[in-house]
Design a protein that fits this description.
Elements: H1 5-23, E1 45-53, H2 56-76, E2 80-87, E3 94-101, H3 104-110, H4 115-129, E4 133-141
Antiparallel strand pairs: 1-3, 1-4, 2-3
Helix pairs in contact: 2-4
């Protein structure tokens, strides 16, 4: 006997949901288990930087250099908690950088002393000096009232 179309629809939905969960890292389907979230420790040091390029070539060059730096930092810097560059969804020449460190010392004494940083930063400075990149930003200490998943 053939299943009704309603039963068939439920079976398809269940199969898709199970496939999505099985395919995802950790079996969570990219969904965060909100019950397992804990508050941040206060005192993390955060850098937020805005980048505005004059042309796509300069943006692509810096993103390439960032990727190389980030690949190294991901596996070598324990005190570096978050290190990401993002492109604006409204302006293809605007980017932001978000860096989060366990402490200001992890940024000032550890990160800035790495070969990865010493290789990346002059490339960014050269684009600034050539007038192809405008940089602005600020640094912050987290208060510990939020969370990161």
């Amino acid at each position: 006997m053939a299943p009704s179309s309603r039963a068939f629809g439920w079976l398809v939905a269940l199969a898709l949901a199970l496939a999505h969960v099985a395919r995802a890292p950790g079996g969570r389907g990219g969904v965060v288990d909100v019950a397992s979230r804990t508050r941040n420790d206060d005192g993390a040091f955060v850098l937020y930087v805005e980048l505005e390029f004059t042309n796509a070539r300069a943006a692509e060059a810096l993103v390439r250099a960032w990727r190389e730096c980030a690949d190294w930092c991901r596996t070598h810097e324990r005190g570096l908690l978050h290190y990401e560059i993002s492109q604006s969804n409204r302006d293809e020449l605007k980017y932001s950088i978000f860096e989060r460190y366990a402490s200001e010392r992890d940024y000032a004494e550890t990160h800035k002393a790495t070969e990865a940083y010493k290789t990346f930063r002059p490339k960014m400075q050269a684009l600034q000096d050539a007038g192809e990149l405008k940089v602005s930003g600020s640094s912050f200490f987290e208060l510990g009232h939020g969370f990161v998943s």
